[in-house]
Amino acid sequence: MGSKSAPFERQSVDTLSSETVMRYREQRQQQTQALAHLDCLRGVAPDTLARMAACATLRAFMPGTVITNEQHPLASLMLIVQGAVSLTLHDRAGREVLIGILERGDCLGVASLFGDRFRGATVRAETVCYLVQIPLADVRAMLPTAPELERALRQIYQQRLVESTLGRVPLFSRLSPVERIHIARALRPMQYSRGSIVLHQGAIGDALYIVMSGQVVVEQNGQAIAYLEEGDFFGEMSLLTRQPHNADVRALTPVEALALPAQDLDDLLASQPELAKQLRDVVEQRKASSRAIQSDVERQAQLMAMLEHGWRRGTHVLVRDLSLCKPGCTICGHACASRHGSSRIHFSGLTLNGMEVADACRQCRVGAECVEACPEDAIVWNDSGALMITDACTGCGECVPACPYDAVHLKPVAAAHRSPLWGLWQRWQRWRTPVIHLEAAHQPHQHAHKCDLCHGYHDLACVSACPTGALRLAPVEEVFPL
Q1: Terminal-to-terminal C-alpha distance of the chain
Q2: Which of the 8 DSSP states describes residue 102?
Q3: What is the greatest pairwise CA distance in the chain?
Q4: Rounded CA gap, 347 and 357, in Å?
């Protein structure tokens, strides 16, 4: 059996005797004190710790148990009170990388609390472990009135984010966790707004940049020659050749990056000859790729189409295999319309390797323009990794022009059907009972409408309805390899 759980604090004092109440209060105090001794909660106010204890569950895990993996982010904050767990993830080359070993006093789940909830690590119990589990919804509810808790957890999140970013970069993934921590101390966090120039062609390089979140395009003399995202790095050519940058690097989305100063990189390469060789190999590969794209009109067109249509803004795209799809078939569109009232997908005509890409919401991972534009915070991520529009939508329409891909539309809200007898009953009630007419609550007449990968259903209507299996949800890396 992998794990066991028990209430950390789950009793009500209303039905207990005075003696039991006394024991209950002593137990709560002990639980609060136990949380106070954890390093990750150092400095958190006692009343906040008491609130955390009140909604916590103690769980036990046997050695070797996988507590969570990269594809299933934690839905709880988990505090290690005994034992040790390992954190691993896969780098951009697909290799499993050890990020570190966490022991008593550390915590898990901060990535889901503050950052991209779909970016995580595999957590495995290395010994018998006891973890205090607190639902993230409860933790989020505490943060507005517990700034010291938010500061403590956010600091851990920033540290974990840097360590995991370095682990995802193949250049650094083969280093030990201790060596990566040493590099992390020299990194400078940088932020860039959408459209800003990160590096200027012709400028002298002063650092190696690692993309922590967001996406950038590399442009040489105005022509796009490469696309980089989380886990990629740039700026290395100028540092190795001692020549000015040969291209601009422009932010396609809001970008968070880590800058490793040139002197620190020189020191690292001097101490790691194998790393220096890998970096020189990367430079040669990128030069060859740049020459290939500049001499290949079709590849240039594919890269420009990918950037223009934002096909890599999300993690997956709907594609149909043209060899399996019957000409003129519209079953998938009708299935979508049948489920949602109108079709949320159509086909763009963009074809790559025999696959046509469906034009639908890109499910943008970083800097989604519709989310930024919504004044009601009505567009949120669901547990399946899709952006969904909640009932908080007022139909203001701000998200429609904000989406650069025309993937959001306004749909009329159907009025509730009432029988004629209902109207007669209402008029009779108004006649026999005097009322004070108040302003009616505003009911939106329209609602934003877009693909949310069939939120609330167990399947995708379009994919399930396809009679030949031509339509599927494919990873963007498969359709648009870098």
Answers
A1: 42
A2: E
A3: 92
A4: 6
pLDDT tens figures, 303-347: 888 899 999 999 899 999 999 998 889 999 999 999 999 999 988
CB atoms within 10 A of CB 283: 15
Distance of alpha carbon 29 from alpha carbon 21, whole angstroms:
12
Q: Model's pTM, two decimal places?
A: 0.81
CA dist 70 and 367 (Å) reads 22
Query: Which among 66-75, 286-295, 387-396, 435-444 has the top mean pLDDT?
Result: 387-396
DSSP secondary structure letters along 291-335: HHHHH-HHHHHHHHHHHHHTTTSSSEEEEEETTTSPTT--HHHHH
CB atoms within 10 A of CB 27: 14
Closest CA to 44 of 32, 56, 58: 32
Distance of alpha carbon 396 from alpha carbon 380, whole angstroms: 16
Residues with Cβ within 8 Å of 119's Cβ and at least 6 positions away in sequence, in order, are 73, 111, 164, 230
pLDDT of residue 10: 47
pLDDT per residue over 12-43, tens digit each?
445 556 777 677 677 778 888 889 999 999 99
Degrees, nearest 5: CA angle 261-266-269? 125
Nearest to 1 by CA among 55, 50, 65: 65
User: How far apart (Å, rounded) are the C-alpha atoms in residues 206 and 239?
Assistant: 7
Ranges of beta strands (E only) in 52-139 are 57-61, 66-68, 76-82, 84-90, 96-103, 107-108, 122-125, 129-135
Residue-wise pLDDT for 107-138, tens only, equals: 999 988 886 555 678 999 999 999 999 999 99
Does the CA dihedral 254-258-263-267 come out positive or negative? negative
Q: What percent of the chain has pLDDT over 70?
A: 88
DSSP string, 366-435: S--HHHHH-TT--EEE-TTS-EEE-TT-----THHHH-TTS--EEEEPPPPP--HHHHHHHHHHHHHS--
A 10 A CB-CB count for 473 gives: 14
